[in-house]
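Take a look at my tokenised protein here and describe the backbone shape.
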Amino acid sequence: MMIRPCDHTDFEIVYSIINEAAHKYQGVIPEDCWKTPYMSREELKHEIDADVVFWGYEEAGELMGVMGIQHVQDVTLIRHAYVRPHKQQQGIGEKLLKALCAKSDRPMLIGTWADAAWAIRFYQKQGFSSVTRKEKNRLLKKYWTISARQVETSVVLADKKWFDMNL
């Protein structure tokens, strides 16, 4: 088991993991927000060009999960966290999240779909808490580049450091 930064040679594998794992969202997130593939190669390239750095959980030489980290202004965002479906519920996401949280001394924020209850529970178990609806709207507009529809149908979770600095 190894957590390592992904590089250009991992692009197709990262793309594959994201789209394989994202099927869990189909029928959960608003229908008008679902598309196939969930994230196109162009969108993935755009995210990497916007300084989302993907890290991977590697087992027996194969990536089983990926998670992105992006430093934006005065915070760090956790972006695009996905684990291969057959490897979910085995601690891979938790290990990736802990490793990425250790890479930043800034407050950490995570955005996810409001109806993805399993994702929200996962982040809450890792010590993140939901911000208010008003604050969620402000944060998504300030730190993310997403559609108004996605802002409307998402939540933001923050770590203790963010709450300590903003209460």
Summary: The longest helix spans residues 11-21. The chain has a mean pLDDT of 96.
